[in-house]
Amino acid sequence: MTHSELPLEGTLVVDVSRMLPGAVLARQLIDLGARLIKVEEPGAGDPMRMVPPYFDDVGLGFAVYLRGAESVCLDLASSRDRDRLRGLAERADVLVESFRPGTMEGWGLGHADLEPLNRRLVWCSLSSYGRAPEVRRRVAHDLNLVAETGALTSMSPDGLPRIQLADVGAGLLAGSAILAALLRRERTGRGGRIDQPLAAGALAFMVWRWAESVAGREQVVDLLLGSGCPCYRTYRCADGGRIAVAALEPKFWLGFLELLGLSDELASEAFAVGPECARVVARIEERLAEGVREGWLRRANERELPMSAVREAADAVADPLFVAAGLVGPVDLPGGGELPGVGSLFPDLGRAPRRPAPKLGEHTEAVLAELASAGGS
């Protein structure tokens, strides 16, 4: 795909957000071809820059998510820099911010302030719970949101999650919302306001579970996904490697048992619970202990069964499966060099830019000169 064929080619995004939700959103828009100008506080910049591990004094998370962005330093406590942001917003297609509700309005940069300057502007706010008066001042990070929605006890009853569900989920939802708003703009000629609560990022994972809880029905989610029933769990092989088996459908469960030579013995035990589950699991692991993981997986792939290796992140990033799917690519680092990492999130529609994440304020002079030449502040 050439650069000119990218869906958001020619779209200007002004990003005043901070931390992971906005970064996830930025990654999507940049991959789809948008030009993204990241507005950062002078001196410090986005706090993601300071989250370790570091490469050339830049946090790796920032380096991964903000590839291809431009960095402009503006002090929004300054009336002059607020005027400069207005000038950028006047020319932008999308503006993204993640301050507490009311902060942008207090600076005269809210949707109602900017809409008269640019009626085609899509103004997207990322806040913990939205702008309703009862919740607008509540502060929450990913752990708070995952805990409040019940997602924490659902996935990690005894510990902390090692992935940020609410932040990433909200960033993905915001990407969909912005694309929908841009499509609507093609019909109406007007942008509009989007308030994307970060809490929705966690709730997106909880829809089924919440519905069961409210209905007071048997917890199917717990039975299928949480109880470790024989057809949906991990197993250890002879070499110590673990495999994940997701044989929920009868055809896959029977195929798995045929692979092991246990179909006559265990055909009715896919959803065994309690002591019976322990017996079935022990029998399966006894069989799996007769071979190494890669051997079992090779045979499973030949039979098109849903079995896969349980990998550490460092191994997964180089997995030929992801390479073949176009999901892995080089991450160029600000100081030079590269690391393997996630490629474009949209392998059929986008591309991961090779330009590394920007140094703080790297594009300030060029962007302000461009703004001035266009008649801005």
Structure commentary:
There is one protein chain. Helix 1 (19-31) crosses helix 8 (165-188). The longest helix is centred in the middle third of the chain and has 24 residues, at 165-188. This protein has a six-stranded parallel sheet with strand order 5-2-1-6-7-8, sandwiched between helices. A hairpin with a 2-residue loop joins strand 3 and strand 4. It folds into two domains: 3-206 and 332-373, 3-Layer(aba) Sandwich (Rossmann fold), CATH 3.40.50; 228-316, formyl-coa transferase, domain 3 (2-Layer Sandwich). The chain has helices spanning 19-31, 60-65, 79-91, 103-106, 111-114, 142-148, 151-155, 165-188, 199-203, 207-215, 220-226, 250-260, 263-266, 274-288, 293-302, 313-316, 320-324, 364-373; strands spanning 12-16, 35-40, 54-55, 58-59, 70-73, 94-97, 122-127, 192-197, 232-236, 242-246, 307-309, 328-332, 338-342. The protein has 18 helices and 13 strands. It is α/β, with parallel strands linked by helices and 377 residues long.
How is this structure best summarized?
This protein has 377 residues and is α/β, with parallel strands linked by helices. The chain has helices at 19-31, 60-65, 79-91, 103-106, 111-114, 142-148, 151-155, 165-188, 199-203, 207-215, 220-226, 250-260, 263-266, 274-288, 293-302, 313-316, 320-324, 364-373; strands spanning 12-16, 35-40, 54-55, 58-59, 70-73, 94-97, 122-127, 192-197, 232-236, 242-246, 307-309, 328-332, 338-342.
